[in-house]
């Protein structure tokens, strides 16, 4: 099971990192780069969600899923990364909107 938790942490962490970088690029006015990074973040988040779905499907199929601190930690990473990616998208959209209004 540790392999699954580490995949969740890795992909979630990558998603959060890409989203944070995307916001930094948008802050500099590099909106194309920001959107590229946001796409990377969404791809990593999708990989994490697929891994998480596998855990849920296993449990639904009757396979025993051991509850551990590492599993809880990895799911926390997924949840927080989902929020960061969603907020990054909104923040970047706001920055694009206000950039256009200033010009």
Automatic annotation (TrEMBL):
SUPFAM superfamilies on file: Enzyme IIa from lactose specific PTS, IIa-lac
InterPro entries: PTS_IIA_lac/cel, PTS_IIA_lac/cel_sf
Residues carrying Phosphohistidine: 73
Domain of life: Bacteria
Alphabetical keyword list: Phosphotransferase system, Sugar transport, Transferase, Transport
Presence of keyword Transferase: yes
PANTHER family: PTS SYSTEM N,N'-DIACETYLCHITOBIOSE-SPECIFIC EIIA COMPONENT
Record-given protein name: PTS lactose/cellobiose transporter subunit IIA
Species: Clostridium weizhouense
